[in-house]
Amino acid sequence: MDFAKQGVAMPLVEAMLKYKNEDVYPMHTPGHKGGRGMEALLRQEMGESVAMDVSLMSELDDIHEPESYIKRGQGLAAHTYGSDACFWCVNGTSQAIHAMLMTSLNPGEKLLLPRNAHRSVAGGLILGGIEAVYLQPEYSKEFGLMLQVTPAAIEAALAADSSIKAVLLTSPNYYGIAADVQAIAAICHAHGAVLLVDEAHGPHLGFSEALPPSALQGGADACAQSTHKILGAMTQCSMLQVQGARLDLQRAADVMSILTTTSPNYLLMASLDAARAQVQAHGAEMAEAAVGAAGKLRAVCRAHAGLKVLEEADCGGLRLDSTKVTVNFASWGYTGVEVGEALRRARVAVELVDAQNVLFLVTYADVTSDYDAALARIDAVLSELERHKREPLVAQTIGAVPVTSSAMKLRDVFYAPKRAVSLEAAVGCVCGEQVSFYPPGIPVLLPGEVITREIVEYCKAMKQLGLPVSGPADSSLDSIRVVE
Fold first, then answer.
1. If you ran DSSP here, which 8-state letter would residue 408 be given?
2. What CA–CA distance (Å, rounded) separates 229 from 311?
3. What is this structure's pTM?
4. Cα separations (Å) of 166 from 130, 149, 186, 222?
5. Which pLDDT tens digit goes with each residue over 317-334?
6. Long-range interactions of 106-111: CB distance < 8 A, separation 24+
7. Alpha-carbon span 421 to 484, nearest angstrom
8. Are 203 and 172 in contact (CB under 8 A)?
9. Which of 128, 129, 238, 440 sits at 20 to 30 Å (Cα–Cα) from 325?
10. From the centroid of its chain, how far is CA 479?
11. What distance in Å separates the CA atoms of residue 360 and residue 356, rounded to the nearest whole number?
């Protein structure tokens, strides 16, 4: 499949190529001077692209005051996705999420959000001095994973507290399950609240009916998209999309400027420009390729008796992005961690492992012969595991993250004195740091929450599975910081 631009403009890419081809001698940063001074091995591996690692200059536009190439590139991205304004993010979707929150809410105002929101949301709450009101999503016992918050739960929460100014959804979630954005948007707007969507895993949505509709199509006021996760941008590249009259576009621009480095990487921005051009020209084809490739993997997994593959019918009436292939191994007696390690030994690296599941991420790029070779290796690993099945994991299954209560606001905890205690001794204390098992990066504990015995046991069980700890100062989680 040819994903060449076919006449679709890439303003920043074209400007950077023009500068490179003019053979200008750079008497400016970066210090490696177009690769001349870069370490030889890295220079060799980066090849010609290093010459396009250029610095902030008026000739190539300024992301803080875009007037030419960046402005046109962001405008084309807004047109492609149907927003009123698009802002390029070179610090990942975390930056876009922080900007969404700080654009939508003033210090002290309330945000309604699911308790399984990504850990980056907590950073936005601290930066913006925003108060969180949490909802518990629905939970699938069969797969041992969170689904989505329901429109009825959103309606009840907004009816109970008229001071809530915004609602945040994670849609689709890490497993590809999309919320009913359209119904929730209508509820939010009826209550005078704006709807924000962490659409990190959905920058490809909206280009094919084979996939769930996008957040903007559902009526969201803003969404944060990881253009690097599913599309062709480089790692760390994301977009913030804003639509409608409920949010101040100039305030969004001001917040983005505060959160963006004054030395943005032009290679990252160029990859955003190119990824947008690619999906603008070929979005439907790319979606068709990804769905087809995922279908081949699903067929491989379904051919093994007893394996459960997450399908749309398992999502409680919600849409599923089928390019996220979640396979549950509990009936074979294996944890997701064990299966992930077996696959890695076979030279296949997966997106996520958890207590019961392995998640394969499939994209439009998985259309080559080496993808077919990888499918054969996956099939061989599954056949070997099937031959050595164990007792099902029913008794060992780890359920949903235990629910606890909040005793302090995030921002207050951030500035409060803290001390380290053993995990065992922390029961009853107020947590002073964030604790997640990554991926998927959903906090087990947030700063300000009360540490319960159930949470301590949950953390110990997750550690025993071998899942990496993210957030605390002690990455072994033998100790945890609590508020003095």
1. S
2. 21
3. 0.93
4. 11, 15, 13, 11
5. 999 999 999 999 999 999
6. 109/163, 109/165, 109/166, 110/161, 110/163, 110/164, 110/165, 110/166, 111/164, 111/165, 111/166, 111/167, 111/168
7. 11
8. no
9. 238
10. 28
11. 14
